[in-house]
Amino acid sequence: MVYLIGGGPGSPDLVTLKGKKCIRRADIVIYDYLVSDSLLSLAGSEAELIYVGKQSGQHTMSQREINKLLIEKAGQGLRVARLKGGDPFIFGRGGEEGMALARAGIPFEVVPGITSAIAVPAYAGIPLTHRAYASTVSFITGHEDPTKETSTIDWGALAQSSGTLVFLMGIGNLPNIVQKLMDWGRPPECPVAVIANGTTPNQKTITGRLDGIVPKARKARLNPPGVIVVGNVAALREHLNWFELKPLFGKTILVTRPEEQGAEFMEALSDLGAQCLQLPTIRIQPPASWRELDQAIAHLPEYDWILFTSVNGVKYFFERIGVAEKDGRCLSGVRIGTIGPKTAQALTERGIRPDLLPSRYCAEGLVEELEKVALKGKGILIPRPRIARDYLPEKLKALGATVDVVEAYRTVQPDYSHEELGGFFGKGTVHMITFTSPSAVDNFVALVEERLPAMEIRKTPVACIGPITAQRAQVMGFTVAVVPSEYTADALARALVEFYSGVQS
After folding, report:
1. Which one is catalytic: 18, 21, 54, 68?
2. Domain boundaries, the chain
3. Is 73 a catalytic residue?
4. Does 2-114 carry CATH code 3.40.1010.10?
5. DSSP H helical segments within 195-256, as ranges?
6. Range of weakest confidence among 6-10, 288-292, 308-312, 443-447
7. pLDDT tens, position by position, 271-319
8. 45: exposed, middle or buried (C-beta count within 10 Å: 0-12, 13-18, 19+)?
9. How is the chain split among helix, strand and coil, in percent rounded to 5?
10. Res 261: pLDDT
């Protein structure tokens, strides 16, 4: 089976549910140039990925070779996801591939995608139809098949139309498109918009008159992929622009949080318009041995308190409770403390309501609350990584408690190649680096030291989840620009918005 899948216009959020399902189930994904890494990450770990993209002047494979590849792989009994940008049947050559499959007797399905023809103008604040401005829409390729002897585009009809004209893949051919329309009678004052990298945080839009848009586009250095909208509706962008007004639009933010927690944080930043680059400086792994944690679980009645300092501690603790064939009832009589709301939420999702959540979401806040409780002679269990700040257990011991710190998981430093690290900082300016723990700062420095111009990277301002992390970043030579008053990832995202609201780009 071959699935001809439209991957949408650029934003990974705009792929269809069926598209996601087919990518996940595929044995092999054959993908184009405009397909994002986020969509490819949906594929199973065993799936083979084959790039067949085409850029101007650079063709990895000819269309004939792509058709042959689809037939060959499907003929081996594989589920093939043919992943394209936009919609496969809107200037995506999906029709040609479908015909080749049909002739070869290969079953296929078409999974429509949101075409850039409608999505990109929408993200630029341009409705393609409007009762007062346009009742028809025409979709036109920005460059025809170069093997054609003559153009099949009726420029006269397009120029005389009162409707909206949408040219796809036409940025490189903009001067010719503009000249053809004016030669055939389109008024030079007709509004026009050119949108590059639409629906992504790199979206760039220029508007103007038909007779003046070419020099504007040159000055703006717009690069493909792009969409050109010609018609009175283009002038409505002045009132309907929404995407490019998001508070973090145009900002590239490097997220160093572990992948498990980083996804939600990145989603929050992306929703605010940011371009997010993920460079986890910590990977979460099970401990080398479960012996310590299993023994602690076996002796839970001996503890008066269990203190969870992270979502990961909750996760692995309850996994081992399950392995021991126990459930939440084994915590009866034990009081539970958490360091912050996300950790408390992780417990609540497992049917446990914490007894203590400090007003300050840090070890210092937790100690402040526990100082109000008689701890002398009390037994306290802290499931956490072995390498972590000793502030909490030391302070609790000073209050007279017996504290057992057991390794529930490990934090290890990922290994990145020089090329991978260079790719992060070579994609354009990184406006802000975010850190959510002191160890993230240390690991980041260890990763970039001697591999990249570390002193140059230290010139990039950083945002830290709390004062302890900020202090570590300052010691390591960074300039701390953002520290929220509440020590959570959500508060850090809000603090970034506040920061950029008061700073010129």
Report:
1. 54
2. 2-114, 118-243, 252-282+414-501, 286-410
3. no
4. yes
5. 213-220, 237-240
6. 443-447
7. 999 999 888 988 889 999 999 999 999 999 999 999 999 999 999 999 9
8. exposed
9. 40, 20, 40
10. 79
- Across the beta sheet with 137-141, the strand order is 137-141, 164-168, 226-230, 191-196, 204-209
Provide mean pLDDT across the span 363-389.
91
- What are the backbone angles phi and psi of residue 468, rounded to the nearest 5°? -65, -45
Computed over every residue of the chain, the mean pLDDT equals 91
pTM equals 0.82
Question: Which of 169, 204, 404, 432 is the catalytic position?
Answer: 169
Domain 252-282+414-501 listed as CATH 3.40.1390.20:
no
Task: State the SS3 of 294-355.
Answer: HHHHHCHHHCCEEEECCHHHHHHHHHHHHHCCCCHHHHCCCEEEECCHHHHHHHHCCCCCCC
Same fold, 252-282+414-501 and 286-410: yes
Concatenate the DSSP letters of all residues of 172-203 into one string: GGHHHHHHHHHHTT--TT-EEEEEESTTSTT-
Q: Nearest to residue 294, comparing CAs of 259, 325, 271? A: 325
DSSP category for residue 58: E
Q: What is the fold of 286-410?
A: Rossmann fold (3.40.50)
Q: Can you tell me the distance from the alpha carbon of 420 to that of 204, in angstroms, rounded to the nearest whole number?
A: 27
Residue 169 is among the residues annotated as catalytic for this protein: yes
Asked if residue 424 lies in contact with residue 243, where contact means CB atoms within 8 angstroms, the answer is no
Between residues 443 and 503, the one the model is more confident about: 443
State residue 504's pLDDT score: 43
DSSP reduced 3-state for 130:
strand
- Residue whose entry in the numeric block shows the structure tokens 């020099």: 215
Catalytic: 61?
no
Q: Determine how many CB atoms are found less than 10 A away from the CB of residue 199.
A: 22
What is the spatial order of strands in the sheet that 108-111 belongs to? Answer: 48-51, 28-31, 80-84, 2-6, 108-111
> In the CATH scheme, what architecture does the domain 118-243 have?
2-Layer Sandwich (3.30)
* Dihedral angle, C-alpha 341, 479, 452, 275, nearest 10 °: 50
**For residues 464 and 473, is the Cβ–Cβ distance under 8 A?**
yes
